[in-house]
Amino acid sequence: MCIKIGIMYAMNPNVAANDLELLPPRTEIESKSVLKKAIVANTELARLKGYCSRLPNETILLNTIVLKEARASSEVENIITTHDDLYQALVTDQSRIGAETKEVLNYRAAVWKGYALLGKNGLITTRTILSIQEELEKNNAGFRTQSGTALVNDRTGETVYTPPDNEIVILKLLKNFEDYVNTEDGIDPLIKMAVMHYQFESIHPFYDGNGRTGRILNVLYLIKEHLIDSPVLYLSRYIIRNKARYYELLQRVRTHGEWEAWIAYMLTAVEETAKLTLETAHRIVELMDKTVEYAKEKLAKTTYSKELIELLFVQPYVKIEHLVTTRIAERRTASKYLKELEEIGILESYRAWRETIYINKNLMDVIKKSE
Fold this sequence. Notes:
The chain has helices at residues 32-53, 59-76, 83-89, 99-121, 126-137, 167-182, 189-203, 210-224, 236-241, 243-256, 259-298, 306-311, 320-325, 331-343, 361-369, and strands spanning 2-5, 150-153, 159-161, 317-318, 348-352, 355-359. By secondary structure, it is mainly alpha-helical. The chain has 2 domains: 2-13 and 29-34 and 57-275, Fic-like fold, CATH 1.10.3290; 299-369, Winged helix-like DNA-binding domain superfamily/Winged helix DNA-binding domain (Arc Repressor Mutant, subunit A).
């Protein structure tokens, strides 16, 4: 199996990296310039965490960010789906959605699976990693036991890197990875996140889903270290926009041991992503507040409730069933509520197969503008 990536550098790429160095790196990873960038990234992350902790309903932001991350992380692997397809898939017949959209939804499920497992014991274990990948790929192929996996230049077809191909070596590296991630050693957690991400990408322990699993582990590690409380960080957007540089710097660590540039890249990703996420959160909350005031003014008192308006911001698409399952209204009344919301311009409706779906278009516009 070959997994295509972007840029090739001179090295001996056809030999399996069974001698991949164990963690921690044997070189200095906390240089003055790296620590300076880490301070900035930590500050932005703390601002985001603080804002999220004050939200009356964090689910509103969580659902949006997790789905954006799922879409973007899958796009890194050239699995492309649209916002509309993705959100519609959440409210319509799952048997009718496309394969790409299913893969994105699998990513979302894998995030929540990992988050739940982390919540049980506060650790990121090999079992956790395996469970995340199983949720992503919907199979139990497990860790690689055969050779044949290589990372390939997507333009030339040449092999860039061959990860370890010995099952015993892979398991040894994963045990070392687990120990590194769960051991307190005084290294700044954001710097450790960059190191662990490089290592996981280089171990490449699965037949498929390595990149997406690694990106989920990034966010889980930040939660484990209490830098954020839930999976609200959207790192894949930065990687997509700087994809060639991402692969270039990964490769420079492998071939030249250039840790500093790689770590700086990941710290910048955290900094910029935290800023963007905070801006998106502000816009969503501001829109919700305006919608609440507008709905109070325009809706009948028997229709309006804060819970009803908040539901419209949990995700951009809603249907009668959502109002019923959240006990906001019974079916007939729920239909009436949604029609009234459409009449005053908060929602727009359309038919999807046999049911009517309502879209919070203003929220959808905010989500699209934050891409």
